[in-house]
Structure formats: structure tokens, C-alpha cells
Amino acid sequence: MLSTSALGPVPLTIHESPSPFREVSAGPVSALIPDDYLPDVHPRLVFYKRIAGAGSPTELDELQVEMIDRFGLLPEPAKALFGVTELKLRVQPLGVRKLEAGPQGGRILFNGQPNIDPMRVIKLIQTRPKEFKMDGGDKIRFFRDMEERGKRIEVVREVVEMLACLVITTMNCRRRLQCFPSRF
Q1: In the Cβ-directed half-sphere of 64, how many Cα atoms lie within 13 Å?
Q2: Torsion angle of alpha carbons 51, 53, 56, 60, nearest 10°?
């Protein structure tokens, strides 16, 4: 569900109807295709539908390129829309039910059978106790300064990439640094 208000940006939440339920919330970030970028309502709605229906980050990138080719460089709200949609696609194989991010950090809720190795999660929390904490049996909290809205999606993307390295199946991360960047 995409919400906007005349009073300013409101929390963006993306819902996907097929089970399991997935939601990505980037806090108060305007994630939309602005009227002044694409004034005609019909093509704008078509692009919303195509963005929501993208099946992979590659397909999403192709849509982004198409929009830039047809309408020019993306404004910040459209970049945020693509960023949040990319995050949604990246968390699907991990078994994430909901991901929320705000100015000081975020929370990741897993579905009943996540694809994350619990021992790797425990090790991550033990090695980075100031950055990650368990919050019940199905939630992880992460703490990072994300006051700047544009930075928020980037930081959440880093966290999602770290989670991808905790997947139960043998995942070949090119380098350990790629999974656990020292600047995080």
C-alpha cells in the first residue's frame, strides 16, 4: 500500500498478498512517482503496477532504465520507490515477513520458517552486540544512525545483504568482507 499525504511523507509500507505476508517500511520516506515527473495518470499507474510486479532486482533495474530513457533522470521519491521495492525482492528468499526502518535503526520479523541459520544469527549478535539484538524468537533489531532519509535505504540494503550471508543453504559470498563489512 502506498500512502501520501498533503501534509508530507507518511510511512511507506509495501504489502504483497500471496503468502507469506511481506512488508517493507522505510519510515517516513516519500517513495512514489511524482506528478511533475510523469504527469499523465495512466502511464504512472502502469509503472506502479510494473514496479510492484517485478520478479527480480534485474527486472526492476530494467524498469528503472526504461523510465530514465523515457522521462529523464529519476527524482528522489522515484529512486526511493525503486529502492524499497528492491529491498522487498531481496528479503523474500530469506523468510522475512516484515522489515521496518527508522532514524535510529530497524526491526526484522521473520516468518515461521525463515531461511536463516539461527546459529549464524547468534554469532552475528554476539560479535556485534551494539548493532544487533534479538527481540523475541522471531525478530532482530538493528541499530544504526539513519536520520538522513536517502541513507536509510542504503543502510537497510547493507543489513539485508548481511542477512543473505546467514542463509541456511550454502551461500558462496565472494568475500567475508562482503557479508560483514567492517564499516557497519
Answers
A1: 19
A2: -20
**DSSP letter for each residue of 141-170:** EEE----SHHHHHHHHHHHHHHHHTTBSS-
* CATH number, residue 10: 3.90.1150.50
Alpha carbon 153 to its chain's center: 7
pLDDT tens-digit readout, 69-96 = 999 999 999 999 999 999 999 998 999 9
Contacts of 116 (CB under 8 A, 6+ apart): 94, 95, 110, 163, 166, 167, 168
> Does any domain span residue 12?
yes
Number of domains in the chain: 1
Q: Is residue 69 part of a domain?
A: yes
3-class SS at 57?
A: helix
The model carries a pTM of: 0.75
